[in-house]
Amino acid sequence: MFLKDLLFPKFCLGCGFLGAYICSNCQKKLSYISKDVCLYCGKASLWGLTHPGCRRNHGVDGLVSIFYYNNLLKKVIKSIKYRLALDVWEELCLVIEPDKLNKIAAYKKLNFAKFFLQPIPLHTSRLRSRGFNQAKIIASFFSQLLQRPVTEYLLRKKSTFSQAQLKNNKDRYINMRGAFEVLTREVDDKNFILVDDVITTGSTLKEAAWTLKRAGASRVVALTLAKG
Ligand SMILES: [Zn+2]
Ligand SMILES: [Zn+2]
Asked: Can you name the CATH fold of 34-66+99-227?
């Protein structure tokens, strides 16, 4: 046992068991997404790529997620505190079964494989109160897997409500509209993988893709750890 573990013992965020943030028992309760679907029509699609007929002007070109956002994962994610954030998010990425990463590694085979990983940014006030951006931690993990760099070209200029608190799609759309801006002209002609922790309605990712593409980005796909 390491000294660090003695000083700051790890307790499972799912069940309280000593030794890990996600104990082996709770790891078994993580539920993997078995079928990737098109973000727009919800029908099956290889690697979650948006069907040619479903593509939108300035839309998201594909989405892959690893886990369903089930009760266990909700509990784990909601109890992540500032001091533990980096460790817990890394552990959540590390417990992913290797073969479940294949579909993400497959992105390297696409003809737009020279992409950049762009985490969904937090508004500065949110970043200050929370102390970390979980999307950035997740992006760093996948940056190693995909051997592609993390960029910070997007800024969250509008402080938005939690999308989950809003009842209908129209409110969610209005909430997110104009939420982001690009910080540099360098996005022009580049391809991106947007990274976030959880996708629920998709309106955050759609707005971010719209912002990048309006600034000249070429292809924009998305990657989230969980899907609601
Ligand atoms: Zn547990
Ligand atoms: Zn479709």
From this structure: Rossmann fold (3.40.50)
